[in-house]
Specification:
This protein is α+β, with helices and mostly antiparallel strands. The chain has 2 domains: 103 residues, Phosphorylase Kinase, domain 1 (2-Layer Sandwich); 135 residues, D-amino Acid Aminotransferase, Chain A, domain 1 (2-Layer Sandwich), CATH 3.30.470.20. The structure holds adenosine-5'-diphosphate and magnesium ion (MG).
Length: 264
């Protein structure tokens, strides 16, 4: 049997549910499941800037798997079931709440710009912001008033989302601090997961250097998508270093030439 041909046919027969900027969603093997496929596309400023970065999808798949699996293990509900291969993971299909939830610990990016706070300033406490998920509108910032008035989430759901965001932030801050990285801020998405008549808000999408600001504790070097946004170069090297510190890439492997080598 020609294995490659069989595999190719199976891949093609899968139904593509959605293609986004960085990922593709395919129909999963069972009802209520999806396959999340990580592409190598890097986009910023609502896809006005776009490049292919070889190996990014592989790294994000592994880093996101690591974070979501650890969250599952400490009882933080997520959509993650298991990783399938280098670029794909099996997830539970959820009804995505159309909000990008941003948690900030240190001033950077749009917060610094809008409020005139110097990048790198420690915030008095973690701050949660909501943005309406709409590429057409450039993801505008919204308040709880907008969210409830337009029915994107109920007041109870907003409470649940904020509690989830704080748990994820506490876990991630500690995880990264332990490997010499400062979690400046991150973006997360949530969804409604139905189990019979019960509904829970769970963490969805991905958590990776594409969706976090990660600064080296000692040098303040950026180890995240700002390397791409700000044309700093060395994106794959930085993402590989994050993976290596988390124990996903083996200690003595560096990537520059042959692309990322991953530990099983
Ligand atoms: N568990 C899930 N169920 C349904 N949709 C999901 C789930 N997790 C993530 N998504 C959605 O899948 C898409 C992921 O692809 P991505 O390339 O990030 O898209 P986008 O360009 O919209 O950001 C996002 O729109 C995200 O909201
Ligand atoms: Mg996305």
């Amino acid at each position: 049997m020609d294995f490659n041909k069989t595999r190719y046919t199976l891949m093609n027969r899968r139904r593509r549910i959605y293609e986004g900027k960085a990922k593709v969603l395919f129909e999963g093997p069972e009802p209520g499941t999806l396959i999340q496929h990580f592409k190598d596309d890097a986009t910023a400023f609502n896809a006005k800037k776009h490049e292919i970065v070889d190996g990014k999808g592989v790294l994000n798949n592994r880093i996101s798997e690591f974070v979501f699996q650890n969250l599952n293990d400490i009882g933080v509900p997520t959509h993650f079931i298991r990783r399938l291969n280098m670029r794909e993971q099996l997830i539970r299909e959820v009804e995505i709440i159309p909000l990008e939830v941003v948690v900030r610990n240190v001033a950077a990016g749009s917060l610094s710009k809008r409020l005139g706070i110097e990048e790198g300033t420690q915030l008095p406490r973690s701050i949660i912001e909501f943005y309406y998920k709409s590429d057409k509108l450039d993801d505008p910032m919204v308040s709880e008033e907008h969210i409830t008035a337009f029915g994107w989430a109920t007041p109870q759901e907003i409470d649940d989302i904020m509690a989830l965001a704080i748990r994820v932030n506490d876990f991630l801050s500690g995880l990264f601090l332990g490997v010499g990285i400062r979690l400046v801020d991150f973006k997360m998405e949530t969804g409604r997961l139905w189990e019979g008549d019960m509904m829970r808000i769970v963490l969805a999408d991905e958590i990776s250097p594409d969706s976090c600001r990660l600064w080296d504790i000692k040098s303040n070097d950026k180890m995240d998508k700002d390397r791409f946004r700000r044309d700093l170069g060395g994106l794959i090297e930085a993402y590989s270093e994050v993976a290596r510190r988390l124990g996903i890439l083996s200690e003595n492997e560096s990537t520059p030439m042959g692309g990322p080598r991953l530990v099983q």
